[in-house]
Every structure is written in C-alpha cells, then in structure tokens.
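During the no-cost extension, the postdoctoral fellow (Dr. R.K.) reprocessed legacy sequence entries with the updated structure-token encoder. One reprocessed record is reproduced below for audit purposes.
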Amino acid sequence: TTKSIDTVKHQYGLPDKYILYVGSVTERKNLLVACQALRRIPETIRRPLVVVGKSSGYSKIVSNYITKHHLEQWVTFAQVHSNDDLPLVYQGAELFVYPSLYEGFGIPVLEALCCGVPVVTSSVSSLPEVAGAGSKLIDPSEPDAIASAITGICTDRDLRTKMISAGYAHSLRFGGNRIAQE
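Re-encoded structure tokens follow.
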C-alpha cells in the first residue's frame, strides 16, 4: 500500500507544519545556527524544526543549546527508519533548511527541490549551484538571515509557490529521477 504524508507524519510523530533538516548532525552541517535562527522567530509564526540524521559528538552541543533556551518543544529529532518514507517527510515540510558550511554536492538540497519544498541554504561551497536561483541563499554564520528567510517563506504564500515552482524546475537539470532515487 502507498503511504500518505499524514500517515508518515503520524508514524514518526511529526507536527502538522514543520521546517525540515536532513543530514548528519555534525559541526560542518551547522545545525546549531538553524536552532539559533529558530529562537529569533516569534512564536506566533515559528514552526517546529524536524531533524533527520545521524548524531555525533556535535549533537550534544546542539542539545545543550536547545535545553538552555527552552526549545525542546520546537526541535524534534526524528528517527526515519525507511528511505521509502523520506520523500513523504520532505513533502510534509513547509520548507527545508540546510545551513551547511561546506558540501561536496548537497544531495539533501536536491532531494528537497525534487519533492517540491522551498529551500533555505548556504551561499557558500557547491550549495548555490545545487539550490538554484529559486532558493533563499543565506550566510551560514548569520542566524538572523536564516530567521528572516524562514519567516518570509512561512508568511508569504506567493513567495513559497514561486520557490517551489522554480526549485522543482531547477532540480530537473540534475537528471531528476536518477538522483532523487539515489
């Protein structure tokens, strides 16, 4: 049977609306700055951040920040067991955030674009090329810039629609299906 987005949200305990991060929780991936950005967004428009990825020693730094700033209800570490469920986790997200400091390529960004999810990612390394002009490119050291980009996407439906359309069109340049399947 084919699962629905709602089924997958329920299975993994995901909120109705959320921001998604997919990638290992390592220093280079810069998840801490995404959490700092989340804290700067007013609670009335803030969305929970769902993190999917392997933890590392850096995870403790991120967890300590979350605890210190009382963000426990705003950050969920989801254990997605099946790669078949991952596209539905992406599709259920309101936007994808990826403030990585360095990438060889940035497959999660391309996966998000293929799944029709607006992307906020770093303006460094290979990420601008992968993300394309329809994505919001930010300085990965600036939580305020990330917060501003997230707020804009969550509050401006037209912007979100344009980003989804431009992002999906851009993703097709990468041979879409083959890379998405990988």
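Residues 25 and 55 are 5 Å apart (CA to CA). The chain has a mean pLDDT of 93. The remaining legacy entries will be reprocessed before the final report is submitted.
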